[in-house]
Amino acid sequence: MRSDRYNHWADFGVRPNSRQNAVVGVQKALEACHQVKGAILACPKGRHDFWPEQSAKIEYYESNTTSRNPQVCPVARKGFKGLTIEGNGSEFVCHGRMQPLTLEDCEGVTARNLSIGWDIPFVAQAKIEKVEKDYIDIRINRAELGAWAARTNRSGLARADETRSRAKPVGSRPYT
């Protein structure tokens, strides 16, 4: 640790751009900051991955979320007073359905200079290209799909059938 107020989560084993699960290291870093009013927790710039394994599982009944419980909460804290999470331009990438940042009974907490997104997004805008009895063709902007883009053809065209199975890439042959 670098000082009483300033911690760097690399000191807790979190490495950017490694695709390793950052959850345990970030939890340890936050625990070190918990009793220090006005603590600053800085992460090195880069991509930090948050996987459901080792994330807290918490029962929450929130009006603006799904009723699926427990919620997967990789960064969950209670009772913080005065904390700054300095992202340094980092990207926090979530894997699976999760509530990335959960703060309960906290005051004066700031998260800055970071973005939160998903490896495989749960939604993307699409244009309906064709509707048939057994299928629809949709065009999706591949940039919005992240890792899922590999499942579409080069033009971004994917096809889903009426059984609501996962969309499958469109080939040169009809969908079966």
Strand content: 35-45%
H/I helix tally? 1
Oligomer status? single chain
Helix-residue proportion: under 10%
Order of helix and strand elements from N to C terminus: EHEEEEEEEEEEEE
- Tell me the count of domains: 2
Describe this structure in words.
With 176 residues, this protein is mainly β. It has two domains: 6-118, no CATH class; 126-169, no CATH class. 6% of the residues lie in helices and 40% in strands. It is built from one helix and 13 strands. Strands 1, 2, 3, 7 and 9 form a five-stranded parallel β-sheet that branches. Strand 10 (126-131) and strand 11 (135-140) form a beta hairpin. It is elongated, with a radius of gyration of 20 Å. It starts with 5 loop residues before the first strand and ends in a 7-residue tail after the last strand.
